[in-house]
Amino acid sequence: MLIVFDKDGTLVPFYDKRPANTPDEQVLLPGVAKKIAVLKANGHKIAIASNQGGVAWGFISLAQAETLMSDIAAKIGADAWRFCPHDERAAGLFGARQEYACACECRKPRAGMLLSLMREFRAFPFDALYVGDRDEDRNAALAAGVQFAWAQEFFEDT
């Protein structure tokens, strides 16, 4: 089975209502490392799919977003990751990076990142699970036709 995780609020905490902006801030939430180790030991493929709209808003660079994703993937031993730097809500705002301030098919709640990961691992919707903490995560899972689990419930027994 392919198990895909959201990043912020699912694998790592938010800080004062903002996502982690440095690798040092990306401390795994309780139970995450243990649960993912068990999943990997049981042969599951592990991936991450995360909106990184801070790029569009000008809060972080594309390179910083890539570093954050690479860092969290290494911390959990992920087999693959995807992120979306776009956010159409930033369009026309001062300080925004206009090349990323647009709609796209990869930004959750759309299914683009999940479908891309499913293609990479040749996973069918019935053999994929998305774990997240927000309605946009649940809606992305619905759009991709995959199973969904709320992060709090998924990690609560570890």
Would you write up a description of this structure?
The protein has six helices and five strands, in the order βαβααβαβαβα. With 158 residues, it is α/β, with parallel strands linked by helices. The chain has a five-stranded parallel beta sheet with strand order 3-2-1-4-5, with helices on both faces. Helix 1 links the parallel strand 1 and strand 2. The two termini are 20 Å apart. The mean pLDDT is 96.
Topology (elements, then pairings):
Layout: E1 2-5, H1 32-41, E2 45-51, H2 54-57, H3 62-76, E3 80-84, H4 112-121, E4 128-132, H5 135-144, E5 147-150, H6 151-155
Parallel strand pairs: 1-2, 1-4, 2-3, 4-5
Beta fraction:
15-25%
Tell how many strands the DSSP assignment holds. Answer: 5
Please work out how many helical segments DSSP would assign: 6
Q: What form results from the Cα inertia axes?
A: globular
Order of helices and strands: EHEHHEHEHEH
Largest sheet entry: 5 strands, parallel
Identify low-pLDDT runs: none
How confident is the prediction overall: mean pLDDT?
A: 96
Largest sheet: spatial strand order: 3-2-1-4-5
**Rg of Cα set:** 15 Å
Distance between the termini: 20 Å
- Structural class by helix and strand composition: alpha/beta
**What is the helix content?**
25-40%
